[in-house]
Amino acid sequence: MMVELVAGMELSGLMLFQSVNFSKTSRGSDMARVTFLTEDGTTNTAVVWDDSILGVLKFATIPMQVDAVITVDSYNGGVSCKLVGLNNVYDTVDIGKWYKKLDSQANGNLLLTNLKGVVSEKALALVLKMLNENGREISVAMAAQYGGYHDGVIGGLLNHLRKLVKYGTVAMAEYKDTFTQTERDLVFLGLVLHDMGKLYELKDGAYWEESIVPHTVSGIWFLDKYKDEIIEQYGRMFYLELIAIISQHHGEFGERPKTVYAYLVHVIDLLDSRVSGLQKKLDDGVVGNCYFDEFKLTFNRYE
């Protein structure tokens, strides 16, 4: 069970370092901030000033399984964590030990079930082929860094895609007389493909050196494996439309959508991001008021 951090506490033992960010103090000295996760699920950020520890962290591969010591002090009415000891750095990370895991097989089956009757047989066959050929990678992929905004768990990517297809069936029902079957195939293939770049962007639930290429770009690498088949089935413009969806699905938070299809995928994706993000915040034990998406929200409970 997650522990509430209070001043004077010391955390020691097995931990997972999920990210390390280096910077300088006001006096120009080296420092870093480490996001850590303990075995009981406690997570926070610890500052590091010790030169010997900084030397180890500079050559670390993240995520990093360690035996460490962190102290908790009072700071500005709250608490501040400091990494003061690094006793061991493990060669490998036991991902199953640290990360919550969802049922990827069930989510994959539900995704396919929701697509049936909505997309054409050739679109469904293409999705099934993608899942079969990349099953191991997709089954463990996360939709966000572990513990992140939404679906930051093992199997989170498939869970995210399942929800998007479900939301999409509701949204697209309103367009039954507007879009052709090919256009519906485009939107739903876009929903399935939009985040496949997470297979490259995240490694063991964390950003790594190759994350300098965002998933809105690396997702096109995944799509490229099926380029010839897509062009043969749908034509070159359909393939380019999918590239636009992948590269523009972040909307106003990235490259702005240039097509109706990219915009629809962005809106449906944003809906799940907000709904899942709020759910995570509430599940973390919000009492009274909480801040979410720049809003101050009151959480009244009723029997």
Radius of gyration: 22 Å
C-alpha end-to-end distance: 25 Å
Could you tell me the number of beta strands? 9
Q: Give the proportion of residues in helices.
A: 40-55%
In DSSP terms (H or I, runs of 4 or more residues), the helix count works out at: 12
What portion of the residues fall into strands of 2 or more residues? 15-25%
Report on the biggest sheet.
5 strands, mixed, barrel
User: How do the strands of the widest beta sheet line up side by side?
Assistant: 1-2-3-5-4
Series of secondary-structure elements, N-terminal to C-terminal: EEEHEEHHHHHHHEEHHHHEE
* Coarse structural class: alpha+beta
Q: Mean pLDDT, rounded to whole units?
A: 90
Low-confidence stretches: none
Shape: elongated
Describe the structure.
- This protein is elongated.
- With 303 residues, it is α+β, with helices and mostly antiparallel strands.
- The longest helix has 24 residues, at 260-283.
- Helices cover 44% and strands 22% of the residues.
- β8 and β9 form a beta hairpin.
- α6 (156-173) packs antiparallel against α7 (181-193).
